[in-house]
Amino acid sequence: MNLTTGASVPELLALDNIRTQLIRLEDTIIFSLIERAQFARNKRIYEAGAFEAEMGSQEPLLNWFIRETESFHAKARRYTSPDEHPFTPRELLPTPVLVPMDFPPLLHVPAASHPSVNVNDSILDFYVRHIVPGITKDKDDGNYGSSATRDVEVLQALSRRIHFGMFVSESKFQSAPADFIPHILANPPNKDALAALITKPAVEARLLARLANKAKVYGCEMDADGHVIEDTATRIDIKAVVALYHDWVIPLTKEVEVDYLVHRLDEVPQSQIDEWMGTA
Amino acid sequence: MNLTTGASVPELLALDNIRTQLIRLEDTIIFSLIERAQFARNKRIYEAGAFEAEMGSQEPLLNWFIRETESFHAKARRYTSPDEHPFTPRELLPTPVLVPMDFPPLLHVPAASHPSVNVNDSILDFYVRHIVPGITKDKDDGNYGSSATRDVEVLQALSRRIHFGMFVSESKFQSAPADFIPHILANPPNKDALAALITKPAVEARLLARLANKAKVYGCEMDADGHVIEDTATRIDIKAVVALYHDWVIPLTKEVEVDYLVHRLDEVPQSQIDEWMGTA
């Protein structure tokens, strides 16, 4: 999110603004998947102990790449931004060298809860188990570093996309808090009702159709003059890109959205809740 | 270059194989330029001293990003590959944690000369002074980390593309050494003649046309359903991409190619030269 452009909180949380960013992230995700797909699966990258002799640990090579990349990005204050979530536990990351920026308070972050919802473990798991096999050939071409570098880029883009759900939730909550509050205050909270309030099947269907079209454009073959050869998309499996969103990105985003809503009233004064409910 | 797929040296040095890799790199370069262009120019990234209070040095932020990224990649043995050249002086980079792979001896590397031709200083200079201004809006949106991360990706791809010229030179030299040898042995070496031997104006013209078409496809606007809106390419300036290659990538590649050829006979026994010349 362009959090630093001087836009006001209502502007930043406007659903149109959020949607624009989510749509732009689709391109980043497809680009990075195409970049990864030029290399073989190279499954050693993901196996515990495959590089134990050299690394001195059982850690999979990819996890080393993630941690090293995030360690530097932490120094460059990446994870002080409310739309960025590291895969590495925050306590293992260095403190920022650059002074963190002042971000407007866009999200409700209760002091007692975790700093924020974080589904990165799930993202890493489905990426390695389902996405990489779906977009690569089951071979080993030895390009471990090149592949793992692209993996980190895909993972960071997916994480950003999925955790953006918190902004979606906040935006929708603010536009009609009284719709959400009874389901949040139910004991236990009514997660199905909360999910129903933020789910727009027509928007999801359109998203999947758009993704397929984008993957087709970006993954096309071109001749030596750069002209698109129609009906080729051999550089990325279009079905795999659509399945990525259908099976993983959309459901996990919903999990993030609902989890955020469940904690939306934590530490909120009763007087504020009464005001939202019109019972003040 | 997929140096590790078990292909033989003649296969790896076949001009068709090299061209395929160069064409694939065009897509990587355009993708990464589009990713950079979504952010503002953010010229503070490139200014010496802009972050001095925090970093404790005059170093531009981008240079810090390059050095930190390359330090990790060095540990992951990136710069032991003959097609990879760091921007950071090699002596400042850590030694590889991963055991370097055995690469086939594709290039002629005289022991007395620098490890290899390296024009990265020129690449960084033209990128900051000409390319970034050509693809971004002259604004500051505060997204310094996101921008600098993309800068590093563009720079690494450009460096790989330009230094690939050494493989082109070696391939062409091997196919007709007697054509090159007199110009290499001239005192001083006849660089113009060497350049003429490796220059194919028709190939260059086709490359520039292909690039424009690719930038048009990848930089297109799409509607909410992912359909291309014809004759839009607002995400990247097509002319800037073509100029990047015309003004910088092609001339610098030629510099790398000629410089490689000038040193191609260093430490080569006279008997080998005689054999190539048919005078043995």
> Rg of chain A to the nearest angstrom?
21 Å
Most extensive contact: A-B, 52 and 52 residues
> What are the low-pLDDT stretches of chain A, counting only 5+ consecutive residues below 50?
none
Helix content of chain A: 55-70%
Encode the helix/strand succession of chain A as letters.
Answer: HHHHHHHHHHEEHH
β-strand number of chain A:
2
The assigned CATH architecture of chain A is Orthogonal Bundle
Distance between the termini of chain A: 35 Å
Task: Please state roughly what percent of the residues of chain A sit in beta strands, choosing from under 5%, 5-15%, 15-25%, 25-35%, 35-45% or over 45%.
Answer: under 5%
Mean pLDDT figure of chain A: 92
* Count of domains of chain A: 1
Spatial strand sequence of the major β-sheet of chain A: 1-2
Write down the CATH class of chain A.
Answer: Mainly Alpha
Describe this structure in words.
Chains A, B: This is Chorismate mutase. Chains A, B: It holds the Pfam family CM_2. The structure is a homodimer of 280-residue chains. The model of chain A has no long low-confidence stretch (mean pLDDT 92). Chain A has a two-stranded antiparallel ribbon with strand order 1-2. By secondary structure, the first copy, chain A, is mainly alpha-helical. Helices cover 58% and strands 1% of the residues of chain A. Chain A is globular. Chain A has a single domain (9-277), classed as Orthogonal Bundle (Chorismate Mutase, subunit A), CATH 1.10.590. Chain A starts with 8 loop residues before the first helix and ends with a helix. In chain A, helix 4 crosses helix 6 and helix 9 crosses helix 11 (238-262). In chain A, strand 1 (221-222) and strand 2 (228-229) form a beta hairpin. The first copy, chain A, is built from twelve helices and two strands. At the A-B interface, helix 2, helix 4, helix 6 and helix 10 of A face helix 2, helix 4, helix 6 and helix 10 of B.
